Structures are given as C-alpha cells and as structure tokens.
Amino acid sequence: AKSNLAYHHVSLFASSLIERLKYSNTMAFWKAAFAVLSLVAAVEGFTTPTVSRVSQFPRMTATLAEPDLGLITTENIRNIAVIAHVDHGKTTLVDALLRQTNVFRDAAQANEAGERVMDSEDQERERGITILAKNLAVMRDGVKINIMDTPGHADFGGEVERVLNMCDGVLLVVDSVEGPKPQTRFVLDKALKQDMKVVVVVNKIDRPAARPDYVVDKVFDLMMELGASDEQIDFTTVYASGLNGISGMEPDDMQEDMKPLFDAIRDCVDPPKVKSTEPDALQCLVSNIDYDNFKGKMGIARISQGTIKAGQPVALARPGAAKKTGRLTSLFIFDNLGKKEVQSASAGEIIMFSGLEDIEIGDTLITNEGGGANAAEPLPPIAVELPTVRMTLGVNRSPLAGREGKFLTSRMIRDRLFKETDRNVALKVEETDSADKYAVSGRGQLHLTVLIETMRREGFELEVGPPAVIYKENEETGELEEPFEKVEVRVPEEYSGAVIDMFNTRNGELQDMGLDDGGEAMSVIQYLIPTRGMLGLRSELLTATRGTAIIDAVFDSYRPKLKVDIKSRDKGSLLAFEDGVTTSFGLENAQDRGKLFVAAGEDVYKNMIVGIHQRPGDLAVNVCKTKALTNMRSATKGITVGITAPIEMSMDACVEYIASDEILEVTPTKFRMAKNPDMAGKKKKN
C-alpha cells in the first residue's frame, strides 16, 4: 500500500497540515492528527469512527455537504462579532484588521480615515465609546470575514444581544492588564448561551505592566463560572496590540502584522451551517435597521436558510402575527466599509435590503412566491434584557421656551421617540397621563442621555424629568422588587475610605475588596448596590477621588425592594428669585451662598436653579439685582470683589444633579435646571 499513489498524496498532505498546525494549540494539533490518521486508514481500507468537523483551511469549492448532520457548510465565509468591556480596544483592533486587508487604497487614504474608523458618530468620537453596533466585511486569503463591532458599555448591551444573532463566533477582546471586567462577563455569557466558539484576544500586549498569563487564567475561570462547554473552554488565545498592528500566538513571539489573528478566525470560528439553500426555505432574521435618503428604510439580516434574489416577492413574518408582504427593490452585501449591490445571495451571508417600509427588528424575511404556500416558518424574535431606568421627556414649558429649537410640539417629539424604537431594541416608549409627556425606559442613565443629546443636536427642545428605577412585582411571592447593579471601582488607596463611605450611605453591600495585582497601588472595591443608589453617584465619586476613580457597573438582578429612602444629595439648590438677566452685582452677593451655574448677562426665570447651596435645603437668591446709582461717592468704591467662574454643567452632569422635584430644560445650546412647577403646586396644597 505504501507504493500506492494515493498514499503518497496523503503523506504530502499530512506533512503540510501538521507543519502548519504544530504551532497552534494542542487540541487543534490532535484533531489534525486524527484527521490525517482517518485519511491513511481510508487508503489502507480500514474504517474509522466519525467525528465532528474540525477547523479546515479554505477550499476551492464554496460548500461542503455533511451527510451525517444534514447540513451544508459555507467554507469561504466567517461571521464574527467583536465583544469586550468598554475601553479594552475593540474598535482599535478592528482598525488594525482594516488596514491590513487592503481596504484603503494607500497610506494617504488610511491617514485621511484616521483612527477608530468604525466610531463614525459625533457622540462616539466625543465620548470615546462605541454606541451603535456596525457591520463591515473584509477579504483575507479567499475568505470573506463579516465583522460586527459592538459597544462595550453595559447601557448598550441591547446592541450586543441583537448582533449576536448574525454571528457564528466571537472575538473576546480582553485588556492585558485589567483582565475580564463586569461587561466582559455579560457579553461572554450571551455568546456562550448561543453555543458560539470564542477566540480570546489579549489586547494591548505592548503595555509595560501586561500580565498575559494572569489574564488568560481569569478568562478560563470566567468561562467555567458561566458553564461553558468543553469545546468552548478549549479556546484559542491570540496576543495582539491593535494600536501597533501586531499579533502572535505567544506573548514573546509577536509578528509584525495581524496574520496570526486572521488565521485564528479562519481556523477556529465555524463557517455558517445551513440545512437548505432552496429558495422556498428562505429565512432571514432582521437584526438591524438603517435609513437611506433615496431607498428609505433598509433591513440588515443574516440569511439562515435558503436563497434570496433582488426583485422577488417576500414577506415579513412573526410567530402569531399577520404577514407583511412586498417585493425587494434592491439587495446588498457588505463590502469593506460600505455595501455592494448584488442580484442574489445565499445562506450564511449578511445582507441589506430595501423595498419594505414596515420592517421591524425581530421580523423574519421569508419568500412569498406563489402566495407563500411553501414558505418556511418565521424564526423566534430577538429577546433582549428588560429596561431598568425610566425618564420622562416632554414639551418644554419654561418661560424661555421656543427661542432656539425647530421641533417644539408634542407630536414631533412623539414621532421622533417612536422612530427611535425601530432600531433601538432595548428602548421602550410609553404614553403617560399627560398629553405632552412620554415615559422613556432604557438600560441605564447613559442609554437615555445619549438619545436626549442626539435629539438636542437635531433641533429639539425638551423638558426632561429625573431618572427613576423601574420596579416590578415578583410573580411567585407578590413582593415588589428593584434592580441591583454590581459595581467595581478601581481607585488609589488614599481615596478608598471616601469611596466606601459613599457606597455605605447609599445602602451598598460590600462584596470584595483588595489591592490590584498590577503593581499600581490601586484598590479594587466591589459593591452590590440598588440602581437608584447609583443615580448621581458617578459624579460624586469622581469629585471625591479627584477624577482618578475607574467605575464599572453592570446590571446584576432584581431583588426585594429595600424599605429605606436613598438620598441622592446632601445639599440644596440656589434658586432665581425673579425673572430677568443676571448681573455682576447680584452674582457677587449670591456666590457667598454657594457655587453658581450662571454667569453675568444670562436670562433666568423664577425658581430656575442657578447654583448649589452650601447647606441642605433650597434658597432663593436675587441674581438679577442691580446696584442703585446715586450722586454720592461710596465709601467702599475702591474695594473690588472678583466673581468666581461658574461651574459648567454638561447634560450628563445635569441629569445626575436634578432631584425628584426638579426638571431639566434642554435646548440646542442651553441646559437649564428648575423646580418642577407641577410638584411645587402639590407641595403647597399639602
């Protein structure tokens, strides 16, 4: 048999395969060895037990039939999501992948695109975080890699849940110093529950304090805690620096490009598996919605089964709901940073389509050929975590309303809010008893303030109420429950006492405390605290620690409501005594009572908040007072008192500051806080 020509080809293939795999992880090596032995046994005439498909190199053919499973594998496509905790370098890593796949024409175009190409929204660049999940596609060694860049902040976890429906595997990016963080646990848990394979990327490996072995051990422990399968725990680890564009399979053996990471994606992430590519089997779960000025509403979906063509009759279906029929006017696939129009696409591909105006996230696109007689059943809609924080948004009713905004009426505000729910699956908008107010619920305070900031920049004027938590009733016990958050604070040791005091006053429960192993003399404090205790706490923590605290919070669970009131702040507000324009003379007298928010020459109105009182309780001050002019020389004319510069309040700071009886007025250029006139009337009546 050794002289057989077939055996000779098998030997050459085995040598090549083992040579390419000998530097990968041990499990992959033994899987390859088993595959080689199976081929040798087949040549010799023996039979071997069947095994599940192992990672293979790209082939010339597009699909490979698997009779044992009844599935078809699309070998030249990989669909992956990049997930991580905030600020662990996801978007920078995606930048490195883009620059090494000839997406940009030359170095000049790459420099023009700048850094963090995927963070294209203004707020994303200003805040330094990813807010919206985005799609792109790159080609590498004949394999198309559809990449989904996801947010890392816990408030935007709905974006991660939505995007995972389009993926077959994930890149879990972990900082080489910090290791897994609270949001790492959240996103990894979602991926593991969908039985996805995980490629761990230890990013920022070039940091002087990098400790890759510690980080990998922590990731392994986290997977064990989350109940990962044996196959998922046997993960591949790649070490990388997205900023420098380097990667490697060992931390001390780095290559000058991202080839090891590309190889890991190709070899370790399963290609899409489908049962059928027949047109009647079409199933596409809509996971995102985009808008085009010319084509209108566009859906983004992954083709789970079947084939789709431009111009064919289709329907949008949900379990237990009536179908919405129509015809595709255009069909696109993702190509680099943009999209490319195609005439057809098959299962495993991620598409964008237009022609159906009533698209909603969670709809399933199915065929409507022949009236849909042979169409497939709709897929289960996307399930996301429930919102935990609520705010009211309504028409601006202040005396200074209508001076700047373009969109002022309740109808305009209502249409904009419900339009946002089309693509923001974690957001919920409800009518209230008042015709000009709407209750908007989200994952957290940041989730809602990003929406308000977006509307402000579009020209809306709004009256915003203070954030409040959403309670729910336990179906089994009938007990009222409230959301709790798990918070981790990293702070220099000298400020740890102040941090603990703040959490204790807000009914936090200490979970763990210790020194960081990174050698930076940082204390790590973990608390379990009611969400209502976290409202307004971030700014106080940053003030108390002089901006050095690193705060990470993630939703933990609903627990029985604490029968205590949690005080948001211990100082009152300075209120404007009357309508008018602030003067230097009035501010000079008022600044002795506390810290001011306004400067001279600004319009104010009665009961508008103009500063922070230095004592508990509110105090009305006359900041519009003018100095009486006489023909007598003042004895104190030569004495001048400087006016302290006012505190500049951002919208996030204003939302954290306002109490339950206060409101925030938002206009395109101004933020004004005031006492809620509705609450003042009730208080007076009582």
Task: Tell me about this structure.
- The protein has 686 residues and is of the alpha+beta class.
- Helices cover 26% and strands 30% of the residues.
- A hairpin with a 2-residue loop joins strand 17 (330-335) and strand 18.
- Helix 1 (5-21) packs antiparallel against helix 2.
Task: Write a concise synopsis of the structure shown.
This protein has 686 residues and is α+β, with helices and mostly antiparallel strands. Helices cover 26% and strands 30% of the residues.
Q: Tell how many strands the DSSP assignment holds.
A: 39
| Overall pLDDT | 80
Span between termini? 100 Å
Query: What level of helicity do the residues show?
Result: 25-40%
Quick tags:
686 residues; alpha+beta; 26% helix; globular
Please render the helix and strand layout as text.
Blueprint: H1 5-21, H2 26-44, E1 63-66, E2 71-74, E3 77-84, H3 90-99, H4 107-113, H5 122-127, E4 134-140, E5 143-149, H6 157-163, E6 169-175, H7 182-193, E7 197-203, H8 212-225, H9 230-233, E8 236-241, E9 246-250, E10 253-255, H10 259-268, E11 273-274, E12 283-292, E13 296-305, E14 307-309, E15 313-317, E16 324-327, E17 330-335, E18 338-341, E19 344-346, E20 350-354, E21 364-367, E22 389-394, H11 410-420, E23 428-431, E24 437-442, H12 445-458, E25 462-464, E26 468-469, E27 472-473, E28 480-492, H13 496-505, E29 509-515, E30 522-530, H14 531-534, H15 537-544, E31 550-560, E32 573-576, E33 580-581, H16 584-590, E34 594-596, E35 603-604, E36 608-613, E37 619-621, H17 651-657, E38 662-666, E39 671-675, H18 677-685
Parallel strand pairs: 3-5, 3-6, 6-7, 7-8, 32-37
Antiparallel strand pairs: 1-2, 2-11, 4-5, 8-9, 9-10, 12-13, 12-21, 13-20, 14-19, 15-16, 15-21, 17-18, 17-20, 22-24, 22-25, 22-26, 23-24, 25-38, 27-28, 28-30, 28-31, 29-30, 32-36, 33-35, 34-36, 36-39, 38-39
Helix pairs in contact: 1-2
